[in-house]
Amino acid sequence: MDIYVGVRVACLFDYLYNTDYNKETKDASKYLFQNPSEKVLARTVRGDLEAIVEVAIRYLSGCGMNKSPEGALFQLDFLTDPDHGQGPYLGDTAPRELKAKAHSCAAQAYLNKVFIAPAERAGLAADERRFTRRDSLRVSINEPAARFANFTNALHHANESAKLGLVSPAVLTAGFLLRDFGDAAGIDFSQMTRSRRFGPLWKTVTRRLDELYAEERIKQMKIAKNPAAYVCAAEGCGIRSEERAALRKCAGRCPPDLKPHYCSPECQKKKDWLRHKAVCKPGSKGRIPGVSDQPKAVALGLLGIEDTSNDGGPSTTESPEHKPQLHALPPGPARTIDIPAPGTSRGYISVTSSTLEAGMMKYIREEMMNPRNEQGS
């Protein structure tokens, strides 16, 4: 039941919809009891458009029938693909809102095929042979090009859903994956948004990014910090400085005013990334084999962008990974760390150094706070 409700929310509702999951679950339970899958399938044969979307949701969730993204797409083709060849095309008579939902569901179904688990691949291949859809006959799931083809189809349907006015969580997921795809090929985001393809989808991604950045700015305004100091953003670190150069800022794609500063790669990558990822790379799923490794020319072609660069290769904004070394550095901007010291007037002492590496300063703090190092222990 939870999966069924989750799929409905991901595909049929706007991402800003404030979902009452208790109510949705109660309503869904009642609806499923009153409308068994056999009854709903019979309605699809009679051309019931609402039933087509409902059956697709059940195929995607595995509620009332075997889980199958291919089965969902077979149903949705009647509303989304004029050339599907399995029967009459009903999209011309479908209300705009319902057609948008169908495209949103199709985007989710294709994304499911992109991220299909190895254990489910054989079952999906069998479903492709069973439903004999045009797209799957052209490129089956076991072919090397399948993942990229399914990714492209997901983008098409997400774009159509956005064009029709529905920006569901599934649509946003596809949009952020498209951004990741362009990043992997070394294409600047501002260049992506000017592409000739996926205009409505780009607008939704840009709008959502603006919302996320605005939310983050409000959060940061509520954080009390010394305006004269730069503080390592990793929770519990405590390294600070009066000079910006003493800390390294995030080299990712977050806005300049939202770039956190760090004392070391360890704090950035190991301690703060899970928090900052929501702003720096929202919706990112990392590299996708068969998708992210496409040549830049393929990415530019998919996005409809002319290649104006001569580098021919991906660029990266990530700082090189290196292991922090516990040794003295050449003199530079001073950094400070506070060490709890009960009995002192302030309750702590401040250690400032222009040569100690951040890891060494934190090591000193830990050693001074360790009870076994106290006199008489």
UniProtKB/TrEMBL annotation:
Chain spans, region Disordered: 305-346
Gene3D superfamilies: 6.10.140.2220
Lineage top rank: taxon: Eukaryota
Name of this chain's protein: MYND-type domain-containing protein
Naturally occurring in which organism (per UniProt): Trametes pubescens (White-rot fungus)
